[in-house]
What does this fold into?
Amino acid sequence: MMDTKTKWAEDRTDWAEDRTILANERTFAGWIRTGMACVAIAMGLSALIGESDLWFHPGRIVSSLFCGVAILIFWTARKKCLETVARLNDHAAKPLPTAMVTLLSTLMTLGAAGVAALLWVIP
It folds into this structure.
């Protein structure tokens, strides 16, 4: 039979794992916000540059670079989030499903790629 102190210690460990799961989701959201900030910077640079007769304008290159960085951030966030979830056991807190993490990363990637494409299509 388990004594009370051991039970309390196990409960504290379970709660700590649940807190870590929730912290992992907040961290994932932070990574996604950072990626979206990169996309916003790309759009802002595009607005600052304005119309240009040059198709291969340096501003477009830099804006596209920020979109590429955003995509890298989205997939790094996914990788780190799924690695953390794989190491933990959930108790009361249920982690974000891995399919949802992948879906969000994919949608964010498509959005950033779309912005990058528009930078080159729209004069």
Remarks:
- The helical segments are 4-49, 58-87, 98-121.
- The chain has a mean pLDDT of 87.
- DSSP finds three helices and no strands in the chain.
- Residues 4-121 form one domain.
